[in-house]
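Extended Data, panel c. Modelled sequence:
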Amino acid sequence: MSDPKSEYVDGELYVFTYNMDGTIVQHLRPELVGKNMMNIKDKYGKCLACDFVRIAREKGMGWSQYWWPKPGSGELSLKISYIMKVPNHELFVGVGVYDMTLKEVEAAIKKSD
């Protein structure tokens, strides 16, 4: 899933996988694999891995919004990710889009249905 030419990568969209202690187990940026993200905060102080783990544990799936470096530019950009726990495993996967609000993402999903 980390191969930029795979079906799991589409432009700025890519799948990432964490375990339930907040460690990245798969990512488009291989230097992040094995890194625990529980102490990493965005520019507004939000712990994104904490939010991901909370969503996976409490809801099983849901949206998280935060600031993250945009691939290719490295600039911090607003990102919204959908997190989904992998059934029967202590893992979750996510995919996110840059520079869109939840409202815009939901409208785009409805439009594509």
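The chain is about 20% helix and 35% strand. This feature is highlighted in the accompanying rendering.
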